[in-house]
Amino acid sequence: MFKKVFIIAVLSVLGMNLLAGFPEDFQNAAKLYRKRKNQEAYEAFMKLAGTAPSKPSKAECLKFAAMSLGNQKKYDQAMELAKSIKLKPVSVYTQMEIMNKNRKFKELVEAFRKEEISSWPDKFNYKGFKLRGIAYAQISEPEKALKDFEQSSKLAGSDLREKFWIINNIASLYNKLGNNKKAKETYRMALELYDANPSLKSWHCYPRALLDLSAMVKKENKLDEAVAILDRFKFYKKRSSWDCLILEAYGDIYSEQGKDDIALKKYKEAVVIKTHKSFIKRISKKIDTLKKRAKNNE
Fold first, then answer.
1. CA atoms within 13 A on the CB side of 57
2. Any idea what DSSP says for residue 41?
3. Three-class SS string for the chain?
4. Residues 6 or more apart from 184 whose CB is under 8 A from it?
5. pLDDT tens per residue across span 200-236
6. What predicted TM-score, i.e. pTM, was given to this entire model?
7. Gyration radius (Cα) of the chain, Å
8. DSSP label at 104?
């Protein structure tokens, strides 16, 4: 009797130790995933799935294991593992992630057009709407993409990065659909949110919003307003591709205003930034055009 009680006690302690170690092991596996060590992440998450303390934690492990396979272009194997996840919302979301990363947009829409994403848990229902919205946009169904993005934005809550990305894409879709008024309203709403959360202005969605809104206003020949929108961008000593694009946009506006000297200065600032060769090539052509125009005017 004593031996039996002792064995049960030992097993209980071992079980508690395994349970206590799971969060740390999960975080270590997640680090491998973030570092794109996908095979190692897959192996780590599959091992964890066997010791997961609950159904939700097991589902999370299998989700990351499947996405690790998807990142390695092992599409069929990844989808098979994703489909094996017992919790349906996690299973469907994982399949959507794998399809999205492997550009299977048509397949995603065909499979999950009628999926009731709003019934998913709050922590990732908005991501499901985002993924399906991306797929709709990619297969040229902008109205349906817009509907899903708007749902995603409403549900995103405190996930501001996702929310701002989604709002930018809502504005872009309105622009593509020819609803300039709604597009500009949405971009301006995004800029107000950025002003309320200035730490996120260093993220790429902020200069993207400035560039898109400025370009729309420029098309309406409101050139001073277009410049004022770009003036909201803060330049840092270490210049990036976004600095290059903002400087180019300034140059384009000043060139259209006939202020060639200022335009040339902005273009020259842009071409010394280490960025994509295509950007530099395009801006260099604009510099040549302005120089030729100046020579012709002598």
1. 15
2. H
3. CHHHHHHHHHHHHHHHHHHHHHHHHHHHHHHHHHCCCHHHHHHHHHHHHCCCCCHHHHHHHHHHHHHHHHHCCCHHHHHHHHHCCCCHHHHHHHHHHHHHHCCCHHHHHHHHCCCCHHHCCHHHHHHHHHHHHHHHHHCCCHHHHHHHHHHHHHHCCCCHHHHHHHHHHHHHHHHHCCCHHHHHHHHHHHHHHHHHCHHHHHCCHHHHHHHHHHHHHHHCCCHHHHHHHHCCCCCCCCCCHHHHHHHHHHHHHHHHCCCHHHHHHHHHHHHCCCCCHHHHHHHHHHHHHHHHHHHHCC
4. 171, 213, 216, 217
5. 888 899 999 999 999 999 999 999 999 999 999 998 8
6. 0.82
7. 25
8. -
Amino acid present at 47:
K
Residue 76, token pair as written in the block = 């069929």
